[in-house]
UniProtKB/TrEMBL annotation:
Basic and acidic residues: bias regions: 167-180
Record note on quaternary structure: Part of the Bam complex.
Protein name per UniProt: Outer membrane protein assembly factor BamE
Organism: Methylomonas aurea
Coiled-coil segments on the chain, per record: none
Membrane topology: Lipid-anchor
Region (Disordered): 142-180
Function in brief: Part of the outer membrane protein assembly complex, which is involved in assembly and insertion of beta-barrel proteins into the outer membrane.
Length: 180
């Protein structure tokens, strides 16, 4: 009886170990990539410089994963990744401050001593110049021809047809004033 229960326990143990190996390596089964913590890469760490303020570091690195009330001069960033069920890879970096300024970096990354040249991903668009010399009311009344074009008056150009009687009358008055 003891032999049979021992053999049964041994067979069950081997069977369970074999099941986990088989279940982890089944073809066609999708396993998730698991990322935890602050995503840290070398380009972020390369932007760090001595005497940066805490606010500048927050802008580059984000908020720290661990802040200790007893060690306010130290910020810890942790990043853990387990791609597709493989073994877990963990990276960490600790930043040290004196007052409000960065004084040291310790961990899996080292900042570059070369200046960082970051290419811009922004594009420029040329926008045509807007006609801001006329108000909306002037533009609307200019469509109906009731009022003279104020832009034309400022520039000395008159786009209206001089054959209208009001325009002819104005021109005659102006000529009379010039002759006197």
């Amino acid at each position: 009886m003891k032999k049979s229960s021992f053999l049964l326990a041994a067979a069950t143990g081997l069977g369970l170990c074999g099941c986990s190996t088989i279940l982890n390596n089944l073809p066609g089964v999708y396993t998730l990539d698991i990322e935890q913590g602050n995503i840290i890469d070398q380009s972020m760490v390369n932007q760090l410089r001595p005497n940066m303020t805490k606010r500048q570091v927050l802008y580059i690195m984000g908020s720290p994963m661990l802040t200790d009330a007893f060690h306010e001069k130290r910020w810890d960033y942790l990043y853990s990744e387990q791609p597709g069920g493989d073994s877990r890879m963990q990276k960490r970096i600790s930043l040290f401050f004196e007052g409000d300024n960065l004084i040291g970096v310790q961990g899996d990354f080292r900042p570059s001593s070369l200046p960082v040249v970051k290419e811009s991903t922004e594009t420029s668009v040329d926008v045509p110049k807007r006609d801001l010399d006329r108000s909306m009311w002037e533009k609307i009344t200019g469509l109906f021809g009731d009022e003279p074009d104020p832009l034309a008056q400022r520039t000395g150009k008159n786009n209206k047809d001089p054959s209208s009687s009001a325009e002819k009358g104005k021109e005659l008055v102006e000529e009379g004033n010039e002759q006197k």
